[in-house]
Design goal:
single chain, Rossmann fold, eight-stranded mixed β-sheet
Length: 256
């Protein structure tokens, strides 16, 4: 396995490849990290994927990793949706670069943990080229989640730095990427969910509800959607879940 630290445009990333085929077109995954994490924290996913012959791109999200601006956790949390939407926008840059460099066989898959899983679900609503996805303790109910986050901050005495009009505009923007409101855009593409039932950071129930609703869209190809739930797990993906997710992406991206 080869790990390269690179800059694609303004985006710092780790570029992981198998030992063979470094310069050739390979099945590829772009994998997003979680809130207050960084690209290096998902190298175990990249290792498993590279062992299966895939190329992996691990970007740093805005305000994270090499893009840190020294903000504290509260400041970064208040910009959570800006970070998510920026990652969705930057996925188009990564996609273009993969093709311009001739690095991707077919089209890439996308995955992520926590905030990265949230990003993945939003990306599925706007990029029809995504071939397969793995959503690890993520959520697609953007509007509902944002409303809950704002209510939580206000209950703790924080004065949110946005006006009522700005709040409505933000929720209208988030609705564009909300999985529940854009289910037909998934279009039967393979998607794997993993979620711990005891997760209090990204609650289990809304993601499971989305899965049950999406199953209606997948009636013609039920094998393309899987929800792995672990009863005692909280906000930490089990090794079993990690292995299943990487196997899923490999299975649906490799053509030979």
């Amino acid at each position: 396995m080869r790990v390269q630290r690179q800059m694609w445009g303004h985006i710092p990333l780790l570029h992981i490849t198998p030992d063979q085929g470094v310069e050739t077109a390979l099945p590829t995954v772009v994998f997003f990290h979680g809130h207050m994490s960084a690209k290096e924290h998902n190298l175990h996913y990249a290792y498993q994927l590279a062992e299966k012959g895939l190329r992996v791109i691990l970007p740093d999200a805005l305000l994270h990793g090499e893009r840190s601006e020294g903000s504290d956790e509260v400041q970064i949390s208040l910009r959570f949706w800006e970070i998510v939407l920026t990652s969705i926008e930057e996925l188009a840059i990564l996609h273009k670069e993969l093709h311009e460099q001739g690095l991707v066989a077919g089209e890439p898959g996308v995955g992520g943990t926590s905030m990265g899983g949230i990003t993945t679900l939003g990306a599925m609503t706007v990029y029809p080229w995504i071939q397969a996805a793995a959503v690890m303790m993520g959520a697609g109910n953007y509007v509902e989640l944002a409303q809950a986050q704002m209510a939580q901050y206000e209950s703790r005495g924080f004065q949110l730095p946005i006006s009522a009009d700005e709040r409505e505009r933000m929720l209208s923007t988030l609705a564009i990427f909300d999985s529940g409101k854009n289910q037909p855009k998934f279009n039967g593409r393979p998607i794997y969910f993993w979620h711990g039932e005891q997760d209090v950071t990204v609650p289990f129930e809304p993601t499971y509800r989305l899965f049950k609703e999406l199953k209606e869209q997948y009636k013609a190809m039920p094998e393309n959607i899987v929800f792995a739930r672990e009863r005692e797990a909280g906000h930490a993906v089990s090794r079993k879940g990690m292995l299943e997710a990487t196997e899923w992406l490999s299975k649906h991206l490799k053509t030979e």
